[in-house]
Amino acid sequence: MNHTHTIAAALMAVSISTGAQASHHQDRHNHSHAGFSAGEPGDPAKPARVIQVTMREADGKMVFMPEQVAVKRGEQVRFVLRNVGELEHEFILATTAENLKHAEAMRKNPDMEHDDPNGKRLAPTKTGEILWKFSKAGEFEYSCLIPGHREGGMVGKVVVK
Fold it and tell me: How confident is the model over 103-117, as pLDDT tens digits?
């Protein structure tokens, strides 16, 4: 019986330690915005312009509609994403260079899970949202990085002035 208590105590200590590490990692991941080139996650308490983005396959291509979006620096946007296609698609907001690097990683691991504030993967007929504040001027893109989709034309542009 004493041995059982020792094992239970050890498992509880590991569980608490792992939880603390996970909590710390999540906190660092969600609040360290220096890693996001296109700005930072939005503030749900503040107003946002809504931009509807549809993802689908059409005429042998994979497309986002609209293909280009213009926003003002400092503007907060709620991207309402709708996958009306027959395949899974994703919306990843970053620079072209970052998305190309991420696409290479996706080719090696096509079932990669995303839990980032600048990206969302949607099954067919599903919807999702990304709330984003464009704090940096420049040209960025949204892209579907599932292998073959970007190459099939699934890239959109965001111009921040």
Answer: 888 888 767 766 689
Predicted TM-score (pTM) of the model is: 0.75
DSSP for 20-31, written as a single string:
HHHHHHHHHHHH
Q: Is 127 helix (H, G, I), strand (E, B) or coil?
A: strand
Provide the terminal-to-terminal Cα distance of the chain, rounded to the nearest Å.
68
Give bridge partners of residue 50 from the DSSP assignment.
78
Residue 125 exposed, middle or buried by CB count within 10 Å (0-12, 13-18, 19+): exposed
Q: Are residues 82 and 131 in the same domain?
A: yes
Is residue 20 located within the same domain as residue 62? no
My answer on whether 82 and 99 are in the same domain is yes
Q: What is the CATH number of the domain that holds 78?
A: 2.60.40.420
Sheet of 61-65, strands arranged across: 40-41, 127-133, 76-83, 49-58, 61-65
Number of domains forming the structure of the chain:
2
Tell me: do 45 and 90 sit in the same domain: yes
- Span 1-58, pLDDT tens digits: 444 443 333 333 333 333 333 333 332 223 333 468 889 999 999 999 999 999 999 8
Task: List the domain range (segments joined by +) for residue 24.
Answer: 2-31
